[in-house]
Amino acid sequence: MSDAAAHEPPSVPAHPEPVAVVTGASSGIGAELARLFAADGHRVVLVARREAELTTLADEIAGRGAPRPVVIALDLAAPEAAARLRETLTAQGLAVRYLVNNAGFGLLGVATSLDADQQLAMIDLNVRTLTALTLACADDLVRQRGGLLNVGSLAGFMPGPGMAVYYATKAFVLSFTEAIGRELGPRGVRVSVLCPGPVPTGFQARAGVGATGFQSVMTVTAAAAARSGYDALMAGRPLAIPGRLARLVPLVVRLLPRRAMLALIAATQIRRLGDRGGL
After folding, report:
1. Three-state secondary structure along the chain?
2. Which of 37, 67, 74, 146 is the most buried (most CB within 10 A)?
3. Is residue 4 one of the residues assigned to a domain?
4. Range 155-177 average pLDDT
5. How many angstroms separate the Cα of 76 from the Cα of each of 59, 157, 235, 250?
C-alpha cells in the first residue's frame, strides 16, 4: 500500500446501515431502551462515558441473538460531542433511523449554593447536547422515516425550587420536543417525549435525591419507563407519562395557582434537602 493510500479517509458505504442510537445507555432507562430496540431487531448504537458498562450490555444483547450493538464511549457533556458522534457514525457507515436522547443528570440543592460549573455542565448535557444531536441527525431521521425520543421528566411541567436548573432543563426538553415534533411530523418522523416521575436509577444517586411522600407512589421501574416511551414512539404518540397517578400531574399543574405550586414543590424539596435547606 502506498503512503498516499494509507492516509486516505475511510470510505463510507453507498448505503449506510440504519441504526438506533441511544445515549446514556450504560444503565437505567437508556439500557432498557437499548434492550427494547434490539429485541425488535434494530441494530443499536450504545453511547455513554462508561465503556465497560456499554460493552457488558452489548455482550448481553448479542448473547440473546440480536445484532451486536456498536459501542461508542464518549463524554456527551464535552464541547463538540454531538459533532464527534455524528462523524463517528458517518465514518462507520451508519445512518440514524432512531435517536434516543436519554443522557442527562440532575443536582439537588439551592441553585446559589450548588457549584455553578456543575450546573452549567448540566445545561450543556441536558439541553445543548440533546439539541445538537437532534439537529445533527434530523436529515437521517427524515431520509429513514424514523423516530426521535427525548427523555424528559415530570419536572418539565413545573418550576422546581431545590432543583431549579434541572427542572428548567426538562421544561426545555418538553417544549423543544413538542415543537420539533410538529415540524418533523409532516416529513415522516415520529417524535415523542418520555416524562417519567421518580425512577430508581443511578441518576437519583448522582442527583442526591429519593422519592418522598406522594412522589413515592408515582415511582416506576426503569423497564416500565422505557417500555412506555418505546411504545409511544412506535405508535406515533407525542407524549409518554408512565403510571396512572403520574399522568394527573400536568392537569394538577394547570389547575393550581402558580404560587401554590411553587410552595408545594418547595415543601417537598425541603424534606429532601434536610440540613441543606434554605428554600
Report:
1. CCHHHHCCCCCCCCCCEEEEEEECCCCHHHHHHHHHHHHCCCCEEEEECCHHHHHHHHHHHHHCCCCCCEEEECCCCCCCHHHHHHHHHHHCCEEEEEEEECCCCCCCCCCCCCCHHHHHHHHHHHHHHHHHHHHHHHHHHHHHCCEEEEECCHHHHCCCCCCHHHHHHHHHHHHHHHHHHHHHHHHCCEEEEECCCCCCCHHHHHHCCCCCHHHHHHCCCHHHHHHHHHHHHHHCCCEECCCCCHHHHHHHHHHCCHHHHHHHHHHHHHHHHHHHCCC
2. 37
3. no
4. 96
5. 23, 25, 28, 30
Range of the domain at 149: 15-276
| 100 domain-assigned | yes
pLDDT value for 268: 80
| pLDDT at position 260 over 80 | yes
Q: Is residue 1 very low, low, confident or very high in pLDDT (cuts 50, 70, 90)? A: very low
What CATH number should be reported for the domain holding residue 271? 3.40.50.720
Structural domain contains residue 65: yes
Find, among 132, 80, 128, the residue nearest to 104 by Cα: 128
Residue 191 within any structural domain of the chain: yes
Domain count, the chain: 1
- Tell me, yes or no, if 166 is annotated catalytic: yes
Residue 26 pLDDT class (50, 70, 90 cuts): very high
Residue 252 vs residue 205, higher pLDDT: 252
